[in-house]
Amino acid sequence: MIKTRGLTKTFTKGKSTVEAVRGVDIDVREGELVALLGPNGAGKSTTLRMLTTLLAPTSGTAHVAGFSITDDRDAVRRRIGYVGQGSGAGNNQRVRDELVTQGLCYGLTKAASRERAEELIEALDLGEFAGRSVSTLSGGQRRRLDIALGLVHRPPLLFLDEPTTGMDPQSRANLWEHILRMRRETGTTIVLTTHYLEEADSMAERVVVIDKGTVIADDTAAALKNELASDLVVVTVADAYAATRTAEVAERIASVRDVTVAGSSVRVRSHRGDTTIPELLRETEAVGVRVSAVELSRPTLDDVFLGLTGRSLRETQTVA
Ligand SMILES: Nc1ncnc2c1ncn2[C@@H]1O[C@H](COP(=O)(O)OP(=O)(O)OP(=O)(O)O)[C@@H](O)[C@H]1O
């Protein structure tokens, strides 16, 4: 559905140049739900704007829904839906009329536009406020309308640029429910950008991590966490001496990657925390060390980003 090779975008203004995207290769298969994740200014939106033909690349190639983004812009545009960061909806029209107008813009007849509007009102649960003016909608309701507007022409591929930024957790969960239901029913391929690590982790089938204009990792969230980050096992013992003995034992366990001692605690990084714990308990008992507590933490996508870049994604974010 999407194939990019060496895609770049450099913005030049006077003497200053910004290399926003520096050679991005992305492949997305039909029906996939892929999240582009990265800190502010990483180049996610610029990549999305190139893929949606809103911005011409400086170099490289990209095929979207079977067509080149530079040679067949109109063909690409007919096959994609794009929901940008701002709301695409006007303020004074009523929700139903907004959808009908969008259908007419895409060349549907009046009757077909009305029919499509009703389908989308049903699909995105807009019925309750379909007769209200857009300006009266809440942020979450408005975002649902934006997505409906992006789907009017039945695109097989939908781009969502930060669909949930700024929403409270309940509205985010509700919007996701609607996105996933729509996807189940239509099989639409979805590519989105997000700041929310948990969202990329739990919703996307694949996470493409972008930093400084390049793709630095691309896999399922589970595989990224497994390969690029470690489980953390924190073992508490009686005193610093027992902690040193525990660390010595831990270092001999095959699944352990790294061990640090802090007072009477030992922090053990392992790529299999679940099997490290019983082994560690057996070995500490064998050398006469009593363990008073053990805590296992699974890695997050932030640990993946930290491992790749030495920076935390959370700290670099300024989410609106
Ligand atoms: N029109 C433009 N002119 C000059 N520089 C730009 C332009 N658009 C984007 N940039 C710069 O390109 C870089 C990438 O920006 P982009 O908006 O793609 O990042 P992003 O990953 O989407 O960030 P965010 O998460 O904050 O939306 C940034 O340094 C940004 O300032």
UniProtKB/TrEMBL annotation:
Q: Which GO terms describe its cellular component?
A: plasma membrane
An example molecular function term from Gene Ontology annotations: ATP binding
Outline the extent of the ABC transporter domain: 2-237
The UniProt keywords, alphabetically, are: Antibiotic resistance, ATP-binding, Nucleotide-binding, Transport
Extract the InterPro entries matched here: AAA+_ATPase, ABC_transporter-like_ATP-bd, ABC_transporter-like_CS, ABC_transporter_ATP-binding, DrrA1/2-like_C, P-loop_NTPase
Per the record, membrane topology reads: Peripheral membrane protein
Q: Which domain of life is it from?
A: Bacteria
Entry keyword Transport: yes
Q: Where in the cell is it found?
A: Cell membrane
Enumerate the Gene Ontology biological process terms.
Answer: response to antibiotic
PANTHER family documented for this protein: ABC TRANSPORTER ATP-BINDING PROTEIN, DOXORUBICIN RESISTANCE ATP-BINDING PROTEIN DRRA
The identity of this protein, by name, is ATP-binding cassette domain-containing protein
Recorded source organism is Antrihabitans stalactiti
